[in-house]
Amino acid sequence: MAQVWVVVPAFNEAENLEVVIPQIVTALAEIGEGSVLVVDDGSTDETAEVTRGLASDDATVRLEQMGRNTGKAAALKRGFSIAVESGAEIVVMMDADGQDDPRELAGLVGKLDEGFDLVTGARLLRRDRFIKKYTSRLYNKTTSIIAGVPGKDFNSGFKVMRASVADNVRPMMYGELHRYLTVIAAWMGHRVTEVPVEHHRRMFGSSKYGLARFWRGFMDLLTVRFIMSYEHRPSHLFGGLGFVSLLAGISILVYLTITWFLGAPLGDRPLLIAGFLLVVVGIQLLVFGLLAELVVYGRNRDR
Predict the structure, then answer these.
(1) Which residue positions in the chain have pLDDT lower than 50?
(2) How far is residue 145's CA from residue 78's CA, in Å, rounded to a whole number?
């Protein structure tokens, strides 16, 4: 049987864990061997105590405590590291709020047998508030267009992946980039897909995210898009922008030079300042792109 580790990041989810963890343990026993790892992300409630109690009753339950609240991505990164280093063959990530249904676990794991490396449990019928539901639709559509990866629920916290995928994506698990784990895995060459799953209402407590997450999410999406496209060729971006700026600045200065020869004064024309500024910025961007290429070259040479 496959070694399956279920990583559950938790921040103040004591009431939910009492119900969710036994359900996950039951589902896990039906598909393989492994552990349920609760990563306590600096909770201020009884999350750690509840998990210890569950662990004392069942050896498959484990607890890892973060020193402070560092965010879901950092908690997942810690959990992935422990799972991979402990010999996991399949790594699962699930939320602790009870909205993911552990009974769907077997179907997601089974999808890996079809040759996929990462399977997302897509919440096509959301049990969330009206605003959260429809902003998520916009978010997922935007992500698919910008990232160039097909999908309807990128932000689902219910994912099953091979251990090799969990190991490969760990360096990108910082900030809030965990939302784009599917995109990152696809960019790295792994086969990804989605499977519709049942989605429940949160059992206890309230969501830890507000509307600000969507603005942060958009900036994270631009970060992922940049890394995906220019990690190994940064000069293509900065050099291209620098060339456009330099060309625009030189064109303006040539135009002003011609008008000066024709007798027009230049001292009081803002366009003169704009032309010089565009030239300086263009040169800086070109140099920055070349320096970035040197960094990439040095990093690749040392590998």
Answers:
(1) none
(2) 30
Q: Are 60 and 36 in contact (CB under 8 A)?
A: yes
List, for residues 150-194, the tens digit of each pLDDT value.
Answer: 778 877 889 999 999 999 988 877 777 788 888 889 888 899 999
Q: Note the pLDDT of residue 204.
A: 67
Residue ranges covered by each domain of the chain: 3-230, 234-302
The pTM is what?
0.74
Provide the pLDDT for residue 36. Answer: 92
Give, for 92, the enclosing helix (H) or strand (E): strand 90-93
CATH number corresponding to 3-230: 3.90.550.10
Question: Of the candidates 111, 11, 21, which has an alpha carbon nearest to the alpha carbon of residue 71?
Answer: 11
Angle, CA of 195, 175 and 163, to the nearest 5°? 45
- Residues 61 and 55 sit within 8 Å (Cβ to Cβ): yes
Q: How many residues does the chain have?
A: 303
Predicted pLDDT at 97:
83
Strand (E) or helix (H) holding 118: strand 118-122
In a 3-state reduction of DSSP, which class is residue 170?
Answer: helix
Question: CA 198, CA 16: separation in Å to the nearest integer?
Answer: 17
Q: Which residues contact 215 (CB under 8 A, 6 or more apart)?
A: none
Angle at 145 between CA 142 and CA 150, to 5 degrees: 105
Question: d(Cα 90, Cα 160) in Å, to the nearest integer?
Answer: 7
Q: How far is CA 113 from CA 31, 43, 109, in A?
A: 13, 36, 8
Q: Check residue 30 and give its pLDDT.
A: 85
